[in-house]
Amino acid sequence: MAAETQDTGTIARRLIRSCDRAALGTNFDGQPYVSLVIAACDIDASPLWLLSDLAQHTRNMLADPSVSLLFDGTGEFPDPLTGPRLTVLGRAERCADPCAAARFAARHPSSAGYAGFADFNLYRVEIERGHLVAGFGRISWVEQGELKFAADASALAAAEPEIVEHMNADHADAVALYAERLLGRQGAGWRMTGIDPEGLDLRRPMEAGGEMARLGFDRPVLTPAQVRTALIELAQAARKAGPN
User: Fold this and answer.
1) How many CB atoms within 10 Å of residue 109?
2) Domains of the chain as residue ranges with CATH
């Protein structure tokens, strides 16, 4: 579906789900403090980060949980001002949800080296609103109800680890076709790292460059059965497309 026909909430969530890093703004003694964080997101698109208690931005958040995040999707645009970017406003909260932690670890496997340290904690942003620039002159505020995926995807969330493991173990050929023929990505070793109602996340191993890619669904999926249908349709489309 072309971006022009999508609602602002869908465009904004696509940015959150696609970006593996963000600029984090916190309050440092009354002044704005901006830092880089690696990011993932929950099933509903709420941003997630794994942060050290020793980091300045973490100390800032513990004093004032109000945060701002910039998700930048302009990297492939010759003129950055024509590309999409989203500023999210919200409050950072510690998150003890093991499913959220697993999603972060799958997206950022290098975090396994420090995720178990006592001074590292997962944080989740309770989104309040966002400011979307979808391209030159296409600017709008997006409210919480549009930014977060609202439908009940609990069945999909519970099945996500099994689906991802099954696809990587038994259908690695289909995963490779998704990357190569539907997204035009090159190189071997593509694996699925996550799946949510609006699409799936792919990644190559760090030794192969660690490249990430996002493949969206034509329509939201909420159950494992709907996921199976969507993945089969994507594989059929990829095989029909032929080599790039």
Assistant:
1) 14
2) 3-147 (2.30.110.10), 154-241 (3.20.180.10)
